[in-house]
């Protein structure tokens, strides 16, 4: 028995028209925030976690565009 969500989540999704531009926009905005965090938050575990979670947010946002 196949689970459609598992099939979708573990399948390569070639970019459709307009999607690469969305991915770029998301990454650019996240990069702006990453630079702000890097400049204003002291080097610390908290800063590292903030940047890691920002990377995860970009990943999941782009996955949402690709998968849906």
Topology:
Blueprint: H1 4-9, H2 19-40, H3 45-67
Helix pairs in contact: 2-3
Summarize the structure.
This protein has 68 residues and is mainly alpha-helical. 75% of the residues lie in helices and 0% in strands.
State the domain count.
1
Uncertain stretches of 5 or more adjacent residues:
none
Total DSSP E strands: 0
Structural class: mainly alpha
Global mean pLDDT: 96
Distance between the termini: 22 Å
Percent strand? under 5%
Radius of gyration: 15 Å
Element pattern in H and E: HHH
Number of helices: 3
How would you characterize this protein structure?
The protein is 75% helix and 0% strand. By secondary structure, it is an all-alpha fold. The chain has one domain.
Short descriptors:
elongated; mainly alpha; 0% strand; 75% helix; 68 residues
């Amino acid at each position: 028995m196949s689970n459609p969500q598992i099939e979708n989540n573990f399948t390569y999704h070639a970019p459709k028209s307009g999607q690469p531009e969305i991915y770029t926009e998301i990454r650019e905005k996240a990069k702006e925030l990453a630079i702000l965090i890097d400049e204003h938050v002291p080097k610390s575990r908290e800063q590292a976690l903030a940047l890691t979670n920002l990377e995860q947010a970009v990943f999941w946002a782009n996955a949402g565009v690709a998968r849906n």
